[in-house]
Write a sequence for this structure.
């Protein structure tokens, strides 16, 4: 029995090796749509399919046994396999393709279309429709998906203050949502009233991101969100470069230390994200810094908060002082971090240590002053 | 009130003209651009608005007097100046065409709650123009900047309307 169980799996592996693309057609549409939602690429899909075969699934085991008992020699005939699987394929799941940037999945869809001639079931028809839908999406790159009510959604999910798609939306107690940054500025400059209904709102400083809404927006309008992220990032860079010769010097210093530290850290975070190593470094530093200096804001998701903080810290046009303070603190941290990393006391002479301490004190004082002024 | 309004106005205009770059990527510039696009796509009834020249922060608008009011048939030009921290501060709306109205001061400055303390960053120029049109239909004599006109409006409405209509014919046609 044990052998019986194992042998079909081996056979399957051999099958994958001989013609790997056949496997893509063996996956059920339900599984595919789940994988699409998780953002898996084709390779991951293939790997996962092997894992799936290992999981106890009454139905499939029964089929395997059936294959063995029917005394047919183990062939690579995919037609037979597909014939066995048709009941599953007959039951197609129409999936909402929210991400327009899924070319790997599309490729697998194409392959399937190519082989459609042997199996003409409804599943492939659905796939075809899906392909058409996706192609339409790429024809109109401005809209994230081809939902019929996308314009209404765009209006609904826009921030009334900046009139763009809400970026990191925050919801007031009266139920209105704005970009977190916009709401904060509104509370600072226009009093603590809801911009929409003038109801009293709490301090704009303590506002948190409405996670569900933010995730929804990211799913519906990936392009807009990405564009805005990129814009704020580049703005932050520019501002950082415009600060002062001293910071420029430390910038250089930081860049020179970067190649040593970056690979290990970015490897730990399995470079699935498309961010550059500099971004990674920035985020890591900011996160650490945040742990040290930040006790006021409640952390919902630590990583996101850190990312937000990093971006806001360097990008806001109005609070250049705050950006400078953060920058200084970051450099101070970097110096100490570098020292501890290498365990070389001669790299950090006492004078520079003292300078770093002084700088830390100055930045803390500046932070205090800023927070007082905001209050 | 008039004095403070006038003072703020002069300093304001000078600051906007010196501050504004032609190719602005600031938050206020973006928002104003967006409003412009929306105005083009979905223009409000009987009014229009757009940048005066290449300065995004200085607009010109027109309002056509609503039929049934003493202002009917008149075309009123307005100047709109956006502060650099728009939309967190209200825009300044000035009648360039002379108008006999208790909420418009002799310099043309429109006095409305939503253009002062009641401003909200969720308001847009479309809504402001709508509000201006509504005070042309229903003046607010209790928050007037020209007490004489407000008095006349409350005391002798017919005479007020006659003068307003006469001014419309004289200046707005």
């Amino acid at each position: 029995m044990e052998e019986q169980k194992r042998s079909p799996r081996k056979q399957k592996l051999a099958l994958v090796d001989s013609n790997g693309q056949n496997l893509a057609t063996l996956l059920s549409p339900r599984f595919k749509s789940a994988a699409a939602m998780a953002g898996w690429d084709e390779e991951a899909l293939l790997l996962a399919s092997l894992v799936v075969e290992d999981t106890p699934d009454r139905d499939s085991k029964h089929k395997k046994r059936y294959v063995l008992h029917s005394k047919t020699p183990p062939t690579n005939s995919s037609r037979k396999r597909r014939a066995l699987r048709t009941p599953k394929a007959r039951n197609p799941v129409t999936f909402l393709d929210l991400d327009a940037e899924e070319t790997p999945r599309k490729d697998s869809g194409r392959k399937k279309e190519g082989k459609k001639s042997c199996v003409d079931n409804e599943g492939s028809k659905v796939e075809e429709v899906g392909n058409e839908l996706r192609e339409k999406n790429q024809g109109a790159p401005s809209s994230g998906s081809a939902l019929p009510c996308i314009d209404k959604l765009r209006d609904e999910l826009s921030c009334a203050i900046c009139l763009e798609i809400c970026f990191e939306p925050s919801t007031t107690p009266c139920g209105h949502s704005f970009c977190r940054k916009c709401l904060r500025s509104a509370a600072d400059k226009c009093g603590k009233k809801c911009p929409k209904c003038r109801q009293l709102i709490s301090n704009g400083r303590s506002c948190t991101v409405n996670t569900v809404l933010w995730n929804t927006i990211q799913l519906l309008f990936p392009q807009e969100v990405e564009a805005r992220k990129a814009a704020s990032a580049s703005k932050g860079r520019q501002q950082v470069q415009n600060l002062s010769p001293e910071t420029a010097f430390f910038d250089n210093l930081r860049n020179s230390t970067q190649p040593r530290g970056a690979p290990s850290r970015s490897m730990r975070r399995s470079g699935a994200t498309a961010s550059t190593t500099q971004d990674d470094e920035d985020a890591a530093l900011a996160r650490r810094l945040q742990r040290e200096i930040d006790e006021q804001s409640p952390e919902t998701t630590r990583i996101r908060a850190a990312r937000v903080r990093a971006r806001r810290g360097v990008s806001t046009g109005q609070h250049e002082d705050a950006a400078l303070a953060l920058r200084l603190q970051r450099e101070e941290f970097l110096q100490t971090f570098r020292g501890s990393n290498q365990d070389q006391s001669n790299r950090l002479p006492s004078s520079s240590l003292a300078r770093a301490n002084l700088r830390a004190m100055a930045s803390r004082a500046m932070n205090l002053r800023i927070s007082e002024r905001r209050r | 009130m008039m004095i403070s309004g006038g003072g703020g106005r002069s300093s304001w205009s000078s600051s906007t003209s010196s501050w504004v770059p032609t190719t602005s990527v600031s938050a206020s510039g973006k928002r104003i651009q967006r409003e412009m696009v929306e105005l083009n796509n979905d223009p409000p009834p009987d009014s229009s608005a757009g940048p005066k020249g290449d300065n995004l922060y200085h607009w010109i608008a027109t309002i056509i007097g609503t039929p049934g009011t003493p202002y009917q048939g008149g075309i009123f030009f307005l100047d709109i100046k956006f502060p650099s921290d728009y939309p967190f501060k209200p825009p300044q709306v000035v009648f360039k065409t002379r108008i006999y109205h208790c909420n418009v001061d002799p310099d043309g400055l429109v006095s409305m709650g939503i253009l002062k303390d009641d401003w909200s960053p969720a308001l847009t120029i479309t809504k402001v123009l709508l509000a201006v049109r509504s005070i042309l239909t229903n003046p607010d004599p209790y928050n007037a900047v020209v007490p004489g006109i407000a008095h006349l409006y409350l005391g002798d409405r017919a005479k007020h309307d006659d003068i307003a209509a006469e001014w419309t014919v004289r200046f707005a046609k």
